[in-house]
Amino acid sequence: MSFESNRILGGVGALLMVIGAVGLFTSAYLLFLLFVGAVLVLIALKGFADHYQDGGIFNDALYGFIAAVVGIVATVAVAIILLSPFIAELAGAELDVGNPAAMQQIIRQIVMEHLQQILGASLGAYLVFVISMILSAILIKKSLDALSARSGEKMFGTAGLVWLIGGVLTIILIGLIVIWISWILMAVAFFSIKTAQAPAQPAAFQLSPQPPPQ
Fold first, then answer.
1. pLDDT tens digits for 31-79?
2. What whole-number distance in Å separates Cα of residue 125 and Cα of residue 151?
3. CA-to-CA distance for 62 and 139, rounded, in angstroms?
4. Burial annotation 6-37 (CB, 10 A radius, 16+ → b, else e)
5. Cα separation of 30 and 18, whole Å?
6. What is the largest CA-CA distance in the chain?
7. Under a CB-based contact definition with an 8 Å cutoff, are residues 67 and 132 in contact?
8. Measured between alpha carbons, how far apart are the two ends of the chain, in Å?
């Protein structure tokens, strides 16, 4: 694809990621846009990697996105595995829907019996999520730094730095908002990137003809 096509794909993809992130709180359809946007961004980065002959631009971003996806899946898996005894006992409890007070008492008793397990599962899943987000952010920052250096568009470097800060701040969860802001900066960077100008060729030196001897 052409340089211009990669620029547009990257910008549109980043914007779709920004919009799709809203789907975490609203609609699964919007969440699907996040996946589509990430794919478009990767395609654009592959194009720029070929254009600048720097494979790290694409490879680091690809590994970064994979780390994020694997981390999210692993987080859910860890939570389910560690909470499975609690879930099984809760599902097997005889709950009388017609007696809310008794039902609450049974649920409270089961929760208290498994409280340590619930806290351990929450902490384990949380640590897996944070570590995967930090690793993902490090790799993606490396990719965006390389693209910034090759293209001269400093906004890519800024987006990568903000993404890394967001990855670290996932420890207090506000990092997810910071990462979302980095996607906006990445979209601006894609739309702002300029085609590299070829260096000017030096003018050919010509000898002026010598006048004939008198």
1. 889 999 999 999 999 999 999 999 999 999 999 999 999 998 988 888 7
2. 39
3. 9
4. bbbbbbbbbbbbbebbebeeeeeebeebbeeb
5. 10
6. 126
7. yes
8. 64
